[in-house]
Design a protein that fits this description.
single chain, about 525 residues, mainly alpha, Alpha-Beta Plaits, five-stranded antiparallel sheet, 5 strands, about 5% strand, Na/sul_symport_CS, TRAP transporter large permease subunit
């Protein structure tokens, strides 16, 4: 091995360790690695910055704003209320009404706002009909993931892989191309949740801090649940070091972290992203901090008081349909031939949709920077550079040769399985976009050395990078429902591991039938 390969290997090991140990935000970790590659000459400044101008990355940024527009229109809240049955029902009947439509919605919207809006409404509804909320919240997170793998825009990972494919000189994915396999995985996953989630998921775990205790607190405070986001300034600090009451004017009564509840010695509890704090807060807390990026979710058990006009709701839905339809029709061969000078793809239509939403004030245009997750964008941009460094150094080719030699007698199917397993392990430990960045150049090198079409390997990376079911840390929606539902780490393992296996088997056997080697 030459110096470049050794350096890339050590840098990637350090990157994975830093991401697993949560030393910094993923974007900063990846940016650090990219700067190291720049310093030793593995990357040129142009190669380092190419990811920041990639269409896939900018499309993700625009989709954050489109999702926010739909969220603020109130359409999602109205949808889930209509899906939830009124009166006495069973877990199975409620799941049957709720899960398939949620999967459909998440195929076109960012998963996080879907879960942020649906989770507190579902929890409140479950308490009202006397069903365990724990039977619905993990399935809610899982079906948003399952829906996301069915379209190009369903998850940022699909757009990242799509961007890398274009950079490599191949034809990218069309709007619904990934749905050729994603729909089989989604249907199988939802049927699995219908059949087994009720048995595998725990019964309700009542909160240590109950609603009945409100009168014991001064100032007529009431109970609020707050899920901590990446921008919360007290991350990796104890409550004693970070004075929550001084910063936010609310009293922390309980901390839910990693499936555990802490109600005593709270000053010694270390805060992490995704932790849920049970607070006593006054009426001004949610209006003040409801749109702040420091909290992923705020819920007080009440309906939103600010009405949303039907005109705004229908306009938001109409623009979403326009974007999806336009991107789908724009990829048709007849349209490409009719307008050869323009690329009427998802990037084109998401740009138009975002601008219309801003000028019609579907989301507040003066606050648009608040709704974009900049860390995810930096992670994506750096992922392109890391992928390029793996290719430039020869590291990807070396790993590809070892993988081919291990599965030499088994053929492309075995290599497809190995790529899936590698990507899936990465996505459970680190971020899904970083997992795709590490796997993509290896998959491309494997296909090149075998002399086969790389498309099946690209598709399997999309499926594996999104299949984060076995741990709460691999996907943000899992973190959110963990705190809201009071789940333990083992709850995700019990329900999610078979779902990982289902995704693996369908991917490995169905993908080569659709995209030939």
């Amino acid at each position: 091995m030459n110096f470049d390969i050794v350096f890339v290997l050590l840098a990637l090991i350090g990157m994975i360790a830093a991401l697993v140990w949560d030393k910094m935000r993923p974007g900063m970790v990846l940016l650090t690695v990219v700067v190291f590659f720049l310093c030793v000459g593995i990357l040129t400044p142009k190669e380092m910055l190419e990811g920041f101008s990639n269409k896939g990355m900018i499309t993700v940024a625009m989709l954050f704003l489109v999702s926010e527009g739909v969220r603020q229109s109130g359409a999602l809240g109205q949808l889930i209320k209509k899906l939830l049955p009124e009166g006495k029902t069973t877990v199975f009947k409620a799941q049957a009404r709720m899960l398939p439509p949620v999967a459909f919605v998440s195929a076109f919207l960012n998963n996080t706002p879907v879960v942020v809006i649906f989770a507190p409404i579902i929890k409140r509804w479950a308490e009202a009909v006397r069903l365990p909320a724990t039977k619905f919240l993990i399935p809610l997170s899982y079906v948003t993931i399952l829906g996301g793998i069915c379209t190009l825009i369903g998850t940022s990972t699909n757009l990242v892989v799509h961007g890398m494919i274009l950079e490599a000189g191949y034809e990218g994915f069309t709007m619904f191309e990934l749905g050729k396999v994603g729909i089989f995985i989604a249907i199988a996953g939802i049927l699995y949740l219908f059949a087994f989630s009720n048995k595998l998921l725990p019964d309700s775990r009542t909160d240590t801090v109950s609603e009945d205790g409100e009168d014991e607190n001064p100032g007529n405070f009431h109970r609020v649940e707050a899920v901590l986001g990446a921008r919360f300034p007290g991350i990796n600090k104890t409550l004693g070091e970070f004075n929550f009451t001084r910063h936010y004017g609310a009293i922390v009564k309980e901390v839910k972290s990693g499936g555990q509840r802490f109600t005593r010695n709270l000053d010694t509890v270390v805060l992490h992203e995704g932790d849920t704090l049970v607070l006593w807060a006054d009426d001004s807390f949610i209006p003040t901090w409801g749109e702040s990026s420091v909290f992923l979710m705020l819920a007080n058990g009440n309906e939103a008081t600010e009405p949303v006009s039907k005109k705004k709701r229908w306009l938001a839905l109409g623009l979403l349909i326009f974007m999806i339809t336009g991107a789908t029709v724009g990829e048709l061969p007849v349209v490409k031939e009719a307008v050869p000078s323009m690329r009427l793809d998802m990037f084109f239509f998401v740009c138009i949709t975002t601008i219309i939403m801003a000028w019609t004030k579907i989301f507040p245009p003066k606050k648009y920077t608040k709704y974009i997750s900049w860390d995810i964008l930096i992670t994506i941009a750096c992922a392109f550079a890391i992928s390029k460094a793996m290719e430039n150094s020869g590291f990807a080719s070396m790993i590809a040769r070892h993988i081919i030699s291990m599965a030499d007698d088994l053929g492309p199917y075995a290599l497809l399985a190995i790529i899936f397993i590698i990507t899936n392990i990465f996505t459970e430990l680190i971020t899904n976009n970083a997992a795709a960045a590490l796997s993509f150049p290896i998959a491309l090198s494997v296909a090149t050395q075998l002399g086969v079409d790389p498309t099946p390997f690209f598709v399997v990376i999309c499926m594996a990078a999104s299949a984060s079911f076995s741990t709460p840390i691999g996907y943000q929606t899992n973190l959110i429902v963990q705190g809201v539902g009071g789940y333990k780490f083992t709850d995700f393992v019990k329900v999610g591991l078979p779902l990982n296996l289902i995704t693996f088997l369908i991917s490995v056997f169905v993908i080569p039938m659709i995209w030939k080697f």
